[in-house]
Amino acid sequence: MSPVVRSAPTRESPGQGSLVPNQGRSGHSRKLVNTATGEVHELYDAEENRRSYSFGGRHGQFSFERVLAMLAADSGITGDEFRLFFYCGIMTYNGKGGANARESAEYLGLTPQATRRMSKKLAEHKMLLVADRIGRTIKYRVTPHIVSSLSGREQSEEAAAYHLPTLPGRPAQRRGA
Predict the structure, then answer these.
(1) Where are the alpha helices (DSSP H) in the chain?
(2) Span 97-142, pLDDT tens digits
(3) Which residue spans within the chain are E strands per DSSP?
(4) Residues sharing a CB contact under 8 Å with residue 113, sequence separation 6 or more, in sequence order
(5) Using CA atoms, how far apart are residues 48 and 27, in angstroms rounded to an integer?
(6) How far apart are CA 116 and CA 138, in angstroms?
């Protein structure tokens, strides 16, 4: 249990101070309520209660609508394909520009043949895009329509260059329909 201190009376309210937990980082107590007058002195210390939003790492955004469609039972996408998609997404925006089948297979615990097959299927539906081709090795990246870490304007410009992705288990939908 935290120590409890009695807040000191002030010139404005000379009554007895209230009992408040000693929560300050510097060891001083906060004057919340003067019990003699009912006067509220301080409810919130913005500096002390500020939350840190520095989570570390790089952040991106994704389309809730399209990711939920990918998760749906009738989407035609398996769990391993979904994992592959997001692995390629992270590698796309983590400075590597995408991932090939061998890298993906090693990380996801799958065979390179399976990751090649899944990558090809996702690329046919424009969910993965060919980022680089060296000989027979293909590096895939995700479509900016679903995952991006670019600014809004940059994402719009990049997305305009590519067709909308479709889902393997659903027929292609028309734009605006």
Answers:
(1) 64-71, 79-91, 101-108, 112-124, 152-160
(2) 889 999 999 999 999 999 999 999 999 999 998 888 888 889 998 8
(3) 4-6, 19-21, 61-62, 128-134, 137-142, 147-148
(4) 101
(5) 12
(6) 9
